[in-house]
Amino acid sequence: MVESHADAASTEVVPVVQPPTPRRQKARAPRAPRAPRPAPQGVGAVVATTSTMVTLVCVWAVLQLLVLSGVAHDREQALLYADFRVQLAETTAPLGPEIAAGAPVAILEIPAIGVEEVVVEGTASGDLLDGPGHLRGTPLPGQRGFSVVMGRAATYGAPFAHLGELRRGDDVEVLTSQGAKTLEVIGVRHEGDPVPAFDDPQAAVVTFVSAEGDGGWLSALTPQTTVYVDAVARESFPTPGGYGLTAPQAEQEMERDTAALPLLALWLALLVGLSVLVVLARQRWSAVLVWTVAGPAAISLAWVATDTGMRLLPNLL
Amino acid sequence: MSDHLSRVRTALGLAAAIAVVGIGLVVPASGPAAAVPDARTEAGTAQRAASSAYSATKTLSRVFVDDQGVPVPQASYDVTVEADQTRNLRGRQRIRISWSGAQPSGGRAATPYGEKGLAQEYPVVIMQCRGVDDASLPLARQLRPETCWTASVAQRSQLLRSEGESTWRRDLYASEADKQALVGTAGLEADECPPLDVTSYNTVLTPFVTRDGTSYPACDIDSMPPEAAVDAAFPPAETAAYTDEDGNGSVSFEVRSDVENESLGCNDKVACSIVVIPIVGLSCQQQATPPTIDDLACRRLGQFPQGSSNAIGAGIDLAVGPGLWWSESNWRNRFTIPVTFGLPPDTCDVLDPRAPTGFYGTELLAQAGLQWSPAYCLNTSRFKFQLNQMSDVAGFRLMESGAGPAAVVSSQQDGGDTPVGYAPTAVTGFAIGYEVDRPKNAGELQNLRLNARLLAKLLSQSYLASDLGRGHPGIGDNPLAIMNDPEFIKLNPGLSDITQEAGATVLSLSNDSDVIHQLTEYIAQDKDATAFLKGTADPWGMRVNPSYKGIDVPRSEWPLLDTYIPETQNTCRKENPSVYFSQVAAPVTTLRKISDALLDAWPNVQTKCDLDAATLKYKVGRVDRQSYGSRFMLGVVSLGDAARYGIKTASLQTRKNKYVGPTDAALTRAVVLSAQKKPRLPFVLDQADVVRDGNAYPGTMVVYTAALLRGLDAETAAKVAQFVRVSTTEGQRRGSGNGQLPAGYLPIKKQGPTGKLFRSAQVVADAIEAQTPAPGPKGEDPAPPPPAAPSSDLPTSDPVVDAPVADAPPAAAPTAAPATVAPVLDVEAAPVAATASEKSGTAGRLLPLLLLAAIVGGLVRLGSRFFVRPPRSLS
Questions:
Q1: Neighbour-count burial for A284-300, b at 16+ CB within 10 Å, e otherwise
Q2: Closest Cβ–Cβ partner in A195, A243, A245 for B795
Q3: In this structure, is the dihedral angle defined by the CA atoms of residues B429, B435, B439 and B441, taken in order, positive or negative?
Q4: pLDDT value at residue A42
Q5: Do B794 and A43 touch (CB under 8 A)?
Q6: Which pTM was predicted?
Q7: CA distance A31 to B391
Q8: What is the Cα A57 distance to its own chain's centre?
Q9: Which one of B106, B334, B627, B728 has the fewest beta carbons within 10 angstroms of its own beta carbon?
């Protein structure tokens, strides 16, 4: 294929509107008299290109974080739900303490703030892309002891965006392979609030963790401080033995997962490669042709690169 | 030529002769001297020895009566036996027993304890017996072979022995009744024992009589006391110890109270003794003509040369073995060391009906608390003191919330706004305890040296432990265990380099503790150790486990971070995939458990595979006890436990080539170096100062009684103040009695280097009693509250780790409110800590910045379109 076009490549650099098809000619006919603007040069070219790129990247990032990631999250939830309901039916759903990161472990419903999510194992930034995550090293929600569930506050569906609006007495329902359990919210804790002491050794305590803004007009987009909500059930399911491992640093709240760096480098390198290919291809074929082929690839690469880059950002964002 | 050769030969011969004489001169001098500097010279041994030591000398001889009836002395020894402490002993305490002048032993067994020590010749039998060695007492209180504890039948009884094995029937000193074919079977029920009355076979039973008078005939495994069951909870303590070729020997003998061994039944009221019988061989009665097989067997002198080993348990000459310790020839050679036991740990619960006042906190105070509490509960003018052990921070939280009157901690804790006073109560610390044998039966290693980098290697799981670890990414070329590490070999030459999994780890604590904090602080001050943890290879090319690379030190809790699961064809491991290095490290929750593991030389390494026959499933469990002669185990212990149980402690490097053990002088030196920033606050010991000084022990820790200075009710405040005053005066007298300070603690005195601790304690005691926050509460607030606590990211994460674990602290706060009635939602009444939230600027600013950048970029793009682009050429 490349060889067959070798002659064409050697002839001339093809201008954008050069190969006029009959249909296109008709469409362009009214504007035909206007000569094209000459390409900018020097500083102007740099400024124009840079600003284009910055705008593109930022608009894409905002678009994906706020809109597209929600779609991805919904899709993951649908898959996880399908997966988990089968496990529940077959009673093969995990009980702990050692569960593979990313596996569904519970279904969480908080009617007061409209949360209905499948909880996954692990709270690293990458795990929380799929939904709320259960902190490894703690019992599952509903089991005796102190469990921790974290969720994102602004992006990827923002399951815990309204966590701070919970009130004492609100119900939290968790469903695991051991059964359903309704917990009662004790209250929301911010910086400096007293941590309640739990006397009852039989209680199941779940602490929900997310982030919140400072209350200003962009509050929903600036989740910078962690917020905690404790919920407790007086009766609990038994906890299997073997707990005691501490979750790695990357899974603590507001931590980032630097393990994603090499992968991100790979995606970015592929993006650069794609750009080079597009530039080269444009010298031979029309823009429509090139972008039809390269467009989906570029969008998917940008998508996964943003997803991977997201793992480098604080996990509660 | 031959002239020359012969001259060389003469010269060599002369040199050899001089060398032999030289060695002869040196060895007797070095023999006893070597026994004196004991690595266990803990704080206080010397003084204790003066008050309760034992020493006695006896002449032991072996006599054969020839066929004419003339006694012919065979051998005679002047044996001296010494013991370092005999009074107020506690269960499992180990006392040092040493002897000199005995017949050198032969055929050393792999394990000298219990039944396994029987196949040795000329050993020294040491056991614990009930009673006093005084023939004038009633029989029930007398010491007899029937009251001496052994864990197996073979140690007590000779069953159905043929003629050539029945040497005791030719015993010169035994009574006629004891020389019959059947001895000790009188009064036996028919079904109690298997048939023993078999022609031409001889039997002697030495029944065991328990404290309450029950007699166990000891003729088979079912007729032994319950504590002698196979795999009993405690391994046998009685031992057939080895005497070296100079006639010297020593052992750490573990005593058992009635808590551990109820049949034996030794306690503070029942007198007991330790019986030491150096075996010199049976004395034999007049020989028949011609001599019978028994006559000849009785006169045997042993098969094994002095100093040899008998690891395979080959047969020995019974006449010189330990199995006949009860025969009159041997029994009359006994040394009886009378011992007394201290009050049992539950004395206060039994004798004092008052409700206890619990102090919560560090385990470092455990041994002192054991001796101190009777001095409170048996004195009606004092309160009933009870020490409940838990992590420092948990104890402190209980104290802050009012659930406990006072906490015992060993460093300053982050707290709330209420001022807290810290009163110095005891000077002690931690040590790296060890149980290491030198190769070739050369005895226990008496001085182990460690440095900060070796500890960092052990803690960071950088040794591979076994071939299973070789596949670990990044560190596949590291040594398997510390005994293969050139750095360790350089410090401790002459040890066996046979790898043991237990040599890849130091048994440590899994939970939060000031001990771990100080240990890691010691590592953190050392440049080499820090560099190692950050990823620099040591001079021999060993690298840190990548899971621990860059770990923050100091820290008060050491996590298990490794995640490597070995790939192997082993069925058991395939069925039970687990993190190998975590199984090797397997930290425990209390220092006492580490002491017990060291006492039994039983590493907590959880890598042994067992096939459960019932289910045909594999399970993974704790490895076996290490065998005597090749033990190697390290663990973090408290100095109190180390001194009580006779656990040897390692010297830690301070300056270059300077290694310091936990001696009185080194502890004192560390106290001198510690400084107090503000009144009523703890003294801080900077590890950098310790290393610079060179003579101070890095593991020195001061235990403080911490109590609120505001808001405590008068009664509680008075109790705490009383405790501080009593424990810093009366409680600082050394000794093993009630209220005294046990070994392993440095006394706090009014004068001298510890004077500053004493004065500080009195000031704090006054402040606690007064309960007046004298100056402004803000200025005196001892806790500078850094909102970002070092390691506790999540305030609720402490209970997260503790709660599901089975052995959570027993007497924790929940006693305050009965669990069944307490409505769950009332829990907010007792807040224990403030929420410390995490902040992230990135998370807060990312989206606004992206939006801003998009808008700015778009504007610039538009602007450039209108202003920067050159106009269209007008064609």
A1: ebbeeebeeebeeebee
A2: A195
A3: positive
A4: 77
A5: no
A6: 0.61
A7: 82
A8: 17
A9: B627
